Amino acid sequence: MEHPWPPPTLRLQRRVVRGSHLPYKLKIQLAAVGCSRRQRRDNRTDYMKTLLPEVESFLSAQPMRLYVDGEWRDAESSNTFDVRDPGDGQLLARVAAGDSPDVDRAVQAAQRAWRESPWASMPANDRAVLLHRLADLVDRHRPILAQIESLDVGKPLGQAQGFDIPNVAQTLRYYADLAVHTRRREPIAVSGFEARTVRMPYGVCAFIFPWNFPLLLVGWG
Description:
The chain is mainly alpha-helical. It folds into 2 domains: 35-121, no CATH class; 122-221, 3-Layer(aba) Sandwich (Aldehyde Dehydrogenase, Chain A, domain 1), CATH 3.40.605.10. It has helices at 8-18, 24-32, 37-49, 53-60, 100-116, 118-121, 124-140, 142-153, 157-181, 214-220, and strands spanning 66-68, 71-73, 80-84, 91-96, 185-188, 195-198. Strands 1-2 form a two-stranded antiparallel sheet. Strands 3-4 form a two-stranded antiparallel ribbon. Helix 7 (124-140) packs antiparallel against helix 9 and helix 9 (157-181) runs parallel beside helix 10 (214-220). The longest helix has 25 residues, at 157-181. The chain starts with 7 loop residues before the first helix and ends with a helix. The model is unreliable at 8-35 (pLDDT under 50).
């Protein structure tokens, strides 16, 4: 089954934002912006009390390390940076601060994987199966991922759970189907010539993501 792009939920979100009347729930969220600092702090305290056990376990792993070449590693400099709640500035986590040597190591590992890993030689159909399986896992763990995304970005939990995380799964399914149905070579009708388009993978790429949809943008990348 092919999945359209953009996913239906993404198209729906665009229509809602462009409409002249904001949904009732969104009005409530906007009104909440005007609450006092103490109210925000109290709301956050209540929210932190309801963290899922998996989220508590994730946040307890301090400092959070870099994942490079199949292993969790500290930054070569051993430096870290703080991740703070955008709503009240309270500390959420400390994360390894990667620098140029860490980037070089990650790029070299990615290039080796590009040339030598089983993924590099895997047929498109098999890669699609794995991407769909990953999308299934995203759907299954939606409450956990949404809570982490909500804390990290500072957006309402309902938005992360109802929009961000479902679109991560939709994006993975879109690319899974694209890998199967896209033709690498396609003839072009040019009079007097034999012509074709040839699609070639770029290879290793690096991305700098903005703050607002980090997990979704990983899927896009």
